[in-house]
Amino acid sequence: MARELIISIxxxxxxxxxxxxPDLAAAYGAAFGTFLxxxxxxxxxxxxxxxxxxxxxxxxxxxxxxxxxGLGVVDLGIVTTPTVGILVRHLGAAGGIVITASHNPIxxxxxxxxxxxxxxxxxxxxxxxxxxxxxRSIQYVDSVRCGRTSxxxxxxxxxxxxxxxxxxxxxxxxxxxKVVLDSVNGAGGRPGRSLLERLGCEVIPxxxxxxxxxxHTPEPIAENLxxxxxxxxxxxxxxxxxxxxxxxxLAIVDEQGRYIGEEYTLALCAQWVFGHKKGSAATNLxxxxxxxxxxxxxxxxxxxxxxxxxxxxxxxIANHCVIGGEGNGGVIxxxxxxxxxxxxxxxxxxxxxxxxxxxxxxxxxxxxxxxxLKTKFSADQQLARTVLEKARTFFSSARIDSRDGLRFDxxxxxxxxxxxNTEPVMRAIVxxxxxxxxxxxxDQVMKFCGR
Length: 451
Ligand code: MG
Description:
The chain is an alpha/beta fold. About 40% of the residues lie in helices and about 25% in strands. The protein has helices spanning about 20-40, 55-70, 80-90, 125-135, 155-165, 170-175, 190-200, 225-235, 265-275, 290-295, 310-320, 340-355, 360-365, 380-395, 435-450, and strands at about 5-10, 10-15, 45-50, 70-80, 95-100, 110-115, 150, 180, 200-205, 240-245, 250-255, 280-285, 300-305, 325, 330, 370-380, 400, 405-410, 415-420, 425-430. It has a seven-stranded mixed β-sheet, with helices on both faces. Strands 16-20-19-18-17 form a five-stranded antiparallel β-sheet, with helices on one face. Helix 3 crosses helix 5. The protein is globular. The protein starts with 5 loop residues before the first strand and ends with a helix. Bound molecules: magnesium ion (MG). Magnesium ion binds near residues 103, 246 and 249.
C-alpha cells in the first residue's frame, strides 16, 4: 500500500506523523470551504470522524481551516461515514467532511469530502478543489466573519430512525435473533448495537468500543474475521456481522460460522428490495453477477458503473434506482442516503430472514454460486496499455465495456481489468460459474503481462 500522501478525487489519505499533518489538513479544509463558497454555499459543513486516535487532531485542524474561510462547522464527533452523508442532508448543510482511512491500518488517516447532496464531488468539481488546495488560492475572511463551531449530539439517532423506517422492526424483533457484531473498535459499534437492539436482537458484542485500536486487521475479509466466525459457532448465534472502521461496509457470517463473502451483502439486500419494488439497481463493473441473476428473476434490471461509490450513487439518483452499492459489502439505499451503509445492510438482511423464515445459509444457497478471483500486479502505463490491447484481441467475442479499464462479458463469466487511480498497479477481477473457468481466465490475463 502506498505510504506517500495521496490527494485523489476521493479525498486525501496519508500517514499520521509522516505526511498527513495538521497544517495540510487545515489547508485542505480551507480549500474545500473556499470551493463551497465559490459555488454560492453558505452556512455550515458537517464534520465526522471514525475512531482513530488521530481523529481529534485532524478534526481540530480541518475546523480551523473551514471556519477561517467563513463557514461554520457542525461537529458530529465519532460517527460512521454514512451518518455524515445523512446529516449533511438532514441539517441542510453546505457540505460534509469525513475523517477516516476506512479499512486501512491504524497508521493511516484520511479526509473525504461530500457535497450538499451527501455524495463525493464528481471528478470535475474534485479537480477544482484540488486546484484551490495546490495553488493555495484560499479566500480567508476577517475576524468578524470567521465561522462558528457547534456540536450535534444526536447523529446516531437520526441515522437509526431512517434505517428502521424502511423495515418492519416488530416483525424482525419477533424472531429474537442472536447476532454477533464485530465493529473492530471502529465507529460502527455504538450505532450498530443500538440498531440491532432496536430490532429486538440479542447482541453478542465483539470490539464495539470506539477506541480506534483495531484488534484485528480491519478490512472485513475472511482472513481477518476468524474470531467472529468462531464466536458465532460457539455462541449458537443466528449470524455474525462485521463492519469496517467507518462502517460503510458489512460482511456477514452465517449460522454455521462460515464467512459468506462480501459480495453476498449486496446480493441479499437486492433480493429483498426487488421482492417489494420493481426497478433497477446500480453497481460497479467489478461486482458479482449474482445481482444480475437476482434482478432478472424478479423482472428487474442492473446498471453498471465505473468503480467508486460516487459513480454508483450518481447513477442511482439519475436512474431512480431502488438499490445499489458495491461488491465489497457496501450497500446504498437512497431512502436513507446516497452513501454505502452497513446499518442499512444489517436491517435489510434481518428483514429478509424474518420474511422468508430462512436461515442465512439457506438464503445463500438459493443464489447462483460463482467463483471470483482477484489479483493485482505492478504495471506502468505502457504495460497496462499492452495488457488491455492483448485482452481486447483475445476476448474479441465478448461484450466489452470500456468505461473503467476494460470489462469482458462472456457466457460463463467476466473479466475486468483496470488500473489504480492511486498507484502504478493493474487489477484483474474474474468471475465464472466454475472455479476451473475462473482460474483459466485469470491465467490467460497473467499471460498478457508476461507472467
Ligand atoms: Mg469504509
